[in-house]
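Exam revision sheet. Question 4 asks you to relate a sequence to its structure. Input first:
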Amino acid sequence: PYPLIVRDFQSVIGIEAREQILKAEGRLPDELVACVGGGSNAIGLFYAFLGDEKVALTGVEAGGLGLEAGKHAARFAGGSPGVLHGALTYLLQDEAGQVQETHSISAGLDYAAVGPEHALLRDEGRARYTSATDAEALEAFHELARLEGILPALESSHAVAYALKRAPKMKKSEILLVNLSGRGDKDLDSIRNAERNAAIQEAHHAG
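Answer key, structure tokens:
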């Protein structure tokens, strides 16, 4: 029952988002975006809009150091159907069904499986899932902080990273709603360490 419990409690996100966007814009958004680790904030956002077929649903997984490098947590891109914690879903696993190690700069997205309802939405074609790398998430964190004075959590920064690429391809009249699942002041040490390590590696390669 746990996916159902999580979905029902988190559904307040989508209920409030729906009410607020209708009040602010007078219509529903064209697309919703949320980060997806286990997927609780995303399913909470999506659920209130499932019946609105004109509203596109996009989940953003952790691309880590890149899908090609194998150090990521993108279950839909690199995983296959498997069972974890009692649920059949998409899972990063080896040929023997053993759970593989994952990587993400964001602790909340660093998980080998995804909520089973997301697996269903993906297989039915109702939602699509993509990924953002650590570097893209860091860039998005700084961009939102600079432009809006908002420090998004590293998890949410993955959704912002997708939005920064998606928005320029949309019409000015279209609405892209991005869910921020948390605040980023808790992540400042992680961000500082990641950027320090990147600078050291860059200096090493330059030398």
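Marking note for examiners. The radius of gyration is 17 Å.
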